[in-house]
Input
Amino acid sequence: MSVERHSLEAPPELVARRRRGKVFQYLCLSATLVGVVTLVVLLADVLIDGVAWLTPTFFTEFPSRIPARAGIKSALYGTVWLMGLCALISFPLGVAAAVWLEEYAKKGWLQTVIQTNIANLAGVPSIVYGILGLAVFVRWMVPFTGGRSVISGALTISLLVLPILIIASQEAIRAVPGSIREASYGLGATKWQTVRHHVLPNAMPGILTGTILALSRAIGETAPLIMIGALTFIAFVPDGPRDQFTVLSIQIYNWASRPQPEFQHLAAAAIIVLLMLLLSMNALAIWLRNRHHREW
Amino acid sequence: MPTIRVSANGEAALETRDVRVRYGNNEAIKGITMEIPRKRVVALIGPSGCGKSTLLRCFNRMNDLVPSAAVTGEVLFHGENLYADHVDPVEVRRRIGMVFQKPNPFPKSIYDNVAFGPRLYGRPPDLDDIVERSLRQAALWDEVKDRMNDNALGLSGGQQQRLCIARALAVTPEILLMDEPASALDPIASAKIEELIQQLVEHYTIVIVTHNMQQAARVSHYTAYLYIGELIEYDDTNTIFTAPHEKHTEDYVTGRFG
Output
């Protein structure tokens, strides 16, 4: 170490260190590319297969044995019904649960147990919710739900998204600064007034974003809906929550599992529609988040 | 220890008796007994962690919001113990207002910030008057009267803090608790707050926590020096800063530690 160096040029030892850094950088890049390239190939494949089949009649026709006459009307209506009901059921439940956990619950073992369970429920395979839905909503609650109906499906999917929605809402509520709560309590506001006027309005953009992202996860769910018996060949649209239904994901599954190439194209076209729905929901979520972005 | 005695002639706005605050096993306030005279400014000074903010928060039960905090002893307000079972903390906080260290206006309009308090109790018909009067009292009216619907977060830090003071005044408290109200502000904004305190004391009792000893000397009538949860000395501000009885106080106010 006594050798005195005058040049600031990299010594061989540093060149070797830099080389190792570069290797790691390219390893990370290729890991990223695996995901991105696969996605692009998949999208391109689906687009090539399906775009030509995206005709107006595709949206206005019911499924059919004859590929040229088959459409997604019932599946599209079913998906909209399912998502709408699911939002109506899960949003109030999820937000209320999050408010209780964040603002009311005393920190203690009960809260910890509930919190841990919610986190675990968010990781339960969706088919398990399907089995639960079949037993509870389709069979046991048949006088109310009408059996294999839209409402049974919506209740099942609601159970599936609730943990995600609760966790997202809790995070949004936690992001509301404590100083705002203090200001409100300091003026003589009750807990409810504080939640109603400050916590919820300020957390709402985050809650809505979380809700939409949770629903966009649910829109592609197939397994639990097959489990509760959403039919695959339905030539009518639901008139009410107690009607039978099908959804896009099930329609895709059904078409994709048929041998004829025309049905493969139909499946691809339906996938495009589903992806468009999903992307617009995510875009809405991003727009909401940015519009309400706030500096404290 | 020299202390301020005013209760005999009924002039105490607040009176504490052996107040103790415990966070878990840690006692932050170790039995403080003191009186806050009516329509005077009392400064609480002391090094960081001495419990001055904790003590201040006992005066309007803000410590209730910290789940681990346990308060014992009595805080008397008009002879009534704030910690008695029948007392509702929400009502306490309306009567005894608070201004915080960091300006914390609501992300709403200037008008709605001030109107929030009065609206909590119903729909006052003279809301516009209350808002104007409060803003005038907080010396902010002239600066904001033409933009009452602008978002309060667009105001400068000093204006935001005066807005917070106006907001606290709008619910007509008798006592105003200020937790280092100027520490987040620049010197000019800080001077405005001090000037304001001197005007407000004509109508309100003010208890102010401050790190800034010059500020305590300038604005307060009485100063209490706290050290690790104990009240070391409480006297006329002049006495505390020029001829304190306790060596410990003298060391602190002359800047030998803290």
In short: Chain A has a mean pLDDT of 90. The two ends of chain A are 52 Å apart (CA to CA).
